[in-house]
Amino acid sequence: MIITDIKTTLLSVPFEEPPKIGFVAMQKIDLLIVEIETSSGLVGMGYLHPIAGGMETIEMCIHEMLKPLLVGKNAENIKKLWQEMWQATFIQGRMGITVMGISALDIALWDLLGKFKKQPLWKLWGGSDNPLPVYGSGCYRGLGHDGMIEKAKRFVSEGYTAIKMQVAWGFTHDEDVANVKDMREELGNDIKIMIDVNQGWNADEAIKFGKAIDKYNIEFLEEPVIADDFEGYKKIASSINTPIATGENHFTHHDMKFFMENNIVSNLQPDLMRGGYTELRVIADMAHKKNIKIAPHLFMELNTHLNASILNPAWLEHMGWYNHLWEEPIIPINGKATPPNKSGHGLKFKPDLFKEYPYKRI
Fold it and tell me: Global pTM?
C-alpha cells in the first residue's frame, strides 16, 4: 500500500435541474477528482465540488504541495498523513485551498483503505448499514413562495419527513416570515422544517426573524450570519428559541470549538471539503461529548458512511444534484438513505462523464 502516484481530473457536468439559489448562478457541477495509486494496484478516489470556482488552484496545491509529501508513504497511515499535510501547509493554510486539497486526498485515502480491507467505510469504522434519515433540501428561494412550497410537497409525497427552505437574499423580512408561516400551514405539524439563511443577515436581523418564527416549530435556523461572526452567533443563540445550526463554511475542529464550548448550536454541519473524513470524525466525537448532533453539509453519498458510524448522527442532506453522476446512485427511499455495502466509499463516476464533460481550463 505504498503510494506511487496521484492523478487529478477536472470535470464540468451540467446539472439535471440547475438550482435556483438566488445569490449565485449555478449551471454546471465543477468536479475535482483525485485518484491515489499504490504499489498494491489498488486505487482510491476522492472528489470535491468547490461550488464557486478555484478548481485549478486546488489542483495546483495538490500537485505542488501535497503530492510530494505522500508519494512513497504507506497509504494505511491516514491520520498520520493528514497531520503531515496539515503541518506542511500551515503557513499557507489552516483553511481554504490547502485544506480543500487535503480533504480530497483524505477521502481518497479512506476509500483506498476500505478497498484494501475489503470493507465499506461504515463497517471499517464500526457502524451499521441501517437506513439513515434524510431531509429534502432544495426548496430554493429562487423558486418563489409558491415554488418552494410545491417543491416541499413533492419531497413529502416521496416519503420525506423533513425539508429545508431558504430565506433572505431577495425576500424582505415580512416575506420571509410569511413564507415560513405558509410552509408550516401547507405541510402540517408532522413535517420538520429547516430554514437556511446562507449567511444572509447580521445578528440583529436574525434575532428579529427568529423571534417572528419561533412559534412555527422550526427544526433549526441555519447559517444566520457570516461564518466568522462568532459573537453574532452567541448573541442570536441567547435571544431566540429556535435552535441554530452551522458549520458548512467552517474549517476543521478548530473553527467548530467555539460553537461547542459555548452551547450555541443543536446541530453542527461540517463539510467534507473542509477537513475530509478524518476531521469530520474528530468533529463528531467532540460534538458528541457536548450533546450536539451532526448533520453534515451536502455530499449525502459520502456522508452515509459518516452518519452510519458516529454516535450522534442527525440528518443527511439530499439535494439530488449528483444522482446522474454515479454508476449506482444512492436514492433515498421514504426519506432514508442506506450506506452502500461496497468496499471503500463505494462510489464510481460514470465513465462517459470523462469523455463528454472535461473542464475547460483558463
Answer: 0.96
